[in-house]
Queue: 2 jobs
Job 1
Amino acid sequence: MSFAHVGIVGSGSWGTALALLLHGQKLPVTLWGHDPEQVARVAAARENAAYLPGVALPESLRFEAELESLAGCDLVLLAVPSKAMREMVARLSTIGLGADAVLLSCTKGVERGSGWRMSQIVSESFPQNPVAVLSGPSHAEEVAQRRPTAVVVGCADAAINQRLQQAFSTAFFRAYTSDDLPGIELGGALKNIFALAAGVSDGLGLGDNSKAALVTRSLAEMVRLGTALGGRRETFHGLGGLGDLMVTCFSRHSRNRAVGERLGRGEALGSIIASMNMVAEGVPTTYSASECARRLGVETPIIDQIRILLDGEARPQETLGALLSREPKAE
């Protein structure tokens, strides 16, 4: 059974790309944004110039600034920054969504302090509703251009997984299913930290050998911490882990890799963040993941060095030196 009305919370690049995708599936879609002026501009111009420039938006795609407009939706996608998720779902819980409405988190991050994944935050506000996640190597720019993409959708309910798979499967967009929500979400969150590290390598001009080694050891670190936090090992070797790690570490579209590259060239984190109109989730997730690793006693040398770099306690060359000077051991 398909969905009758889809609501999308978050009118950034990812929310807009997903709105286009589902609209192309002949589903009624309403895209909500928090800034009424920005929503009005997008609706009038039929282009999200701030976040997804050059992509035409169809007339039948609805844009709303009133959250209550989503009350009748039976599928709600959450595409907001991780730091805004808790407040957003608390607001959403007051508009009268039906108990059978599916809440789908499309956000990649871990909450600082609690260490909670996004689906856990959603479930706290919607204990009766089915909660699912979507992740994988899927830059918004390429999805909007209908370039071949594969993702993974995850839900504990197999029937919901099948409905989501049907909704998201097109001629260019392929959705696989899994019931490993922790693994899917942790892979999508942790890879952003390692993309920062890959960007630092690019900024320092270290070359392909160095970057390949870094990404390979990043996967080992992702598996180590991700399994300690409840994910299954095999999930991290799939689209939600390795696939997302590869695209984020190598793509020109990757915000996290770009931030890391600028750090590697010596720019200050504050000035980099101030110059961006989108969120690089790897920055806050570095702190969340570091706290989780310390609590569980998991060794995370790459995450540790990125945190030191973000805190301004070492220069990029020094963080590399710290990784290279570690005691040799078996792979």
Job 2
Amino acid sequence: MSITLEPDADGTTLRLVHDGLTAEQAAAHAEGWNHYLDRLIAETSSPAGAGPDEWSAAPDSIDHISSAEASLAVLLGVLRKLTPEDREKATPCENFTAHELLEHLAGSLKHIGGALGAEVTDDAGAGPEVRIAGLAQAALEAFSRRGVEGTIDMGFAELPATVVAGIINLELLVHAWDFATATGQELVVSDVVTDHVEALALLTISDQVRASGSFAAAQPVAETASSLERLIAFTGRPVAV
């Protein structure tokens, strides 16, 4: 396959040309380019920009790592909009202000990254998005290299790697909701991701874990609740019913 830029007949417009694609590949490429070019037009023509891109947060192949990467993308979009005025706002994570929750999240990612053997550097003076991106990326890259087989020594206990993967997914996505709720942002995330993280939560948040104080009791949700609302309620956070 090759990609070239060719001028149109009038010589004023360049066309992006893909060669050597099958019909299926050509259709997929056309769908992708049309999607992102439409977003580019919206980004440059609207004062509000293109808004969150739900498609980019819905991996074609969902697993422990890809769901965590998608959750990180959602989280960073929320952290990008935090302002100094948000620092002392209360969050749905009980007894945590936005600043305290950021410190908690940074600490969790440092701990997980260290347990995975990553070289973790915490730039505490960086903005929230940059700081968390660096910590999370180091942990996820280490997890991707290691895989989710066997157990991981977390210092306080030897845990199955799948449980640690569940923890990092919950840290990224649920706290994204916490930050968004505290600051009046809309959290846009694909059901592909929330369904997967909800399944991980069911395996990760046991009665013993709740008894330790890490999570409150699961909260009620309406029968029509979204996948994200079910996940949030299962972690002990109240949602509208």
